């Protein structure tokens, strides 16, 4: 495992509520369990600075508690908006969830 990856939580913790707010290298990150996949987004919404880990997951989308924006947990893209929530790469090793503290850079779609 690369040095910069941070152990953020256990799968057992995440399975309890399907979402979890954690700190990754001092950065607030929201973890989501969607089916068998784990995703990580910055926990502070780009729109109204609300905590995404207090939102819900419905039909594979994270719903922000501020204005119910729908966010793709895999990419951070906000449905029907130009905004994009920073997302983080996730790795699972045993029961541990590791998160890269550096947000991913998505290539512009053309």
TrEMBL record:
Residues 6-99 form the Rieske domain. Pfam families: Rieske (PF00355). InterPro entries: Rieske_2Fe-2S, Rieske_2Fe-2S_sf. Coiled coil: none annotated. The keyword Ion transport does not apply. Keywords: 2Fe-2S, Iron, Iron-sulfur, Metal-binding. The keyword Plastid does not apply. SUPFAM superfamilies: ISP domain (SSF50022). PANTHER family: 3-PHENYLPROPIONATE_CINNAMIC ACID DIOXYGENASE FERREDOXIN SUBUNIT, FERREDOXIN-RELATED. This is Rieske 2Fe-2S domain-containing protein. It comes from Actinomadura violacea.
């Amino acid at each position: 495992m690369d040095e910069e990856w941070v152990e953020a939580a256990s799968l057992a913790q995440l399975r309890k509520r399907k979402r979890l707010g954690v700190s990754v290298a001092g950065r607030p990150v929201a973890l989501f369990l969607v089916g068998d996949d784990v995703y990580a987004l910055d926990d502070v919404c780009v729109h109204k600075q609300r905590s995404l880990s207090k939102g819900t997951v419905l039909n594979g989308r994270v719903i922000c508690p501020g204005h119910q924006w729908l966010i793709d947990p895999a990419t951070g893209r906000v449905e029907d908006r130009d905004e994009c929530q920073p997302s983080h790469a996730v790795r699972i090793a045993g029961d541990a969830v590791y998160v890269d503290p550096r947000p991913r850079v998505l290539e512009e779609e053309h």
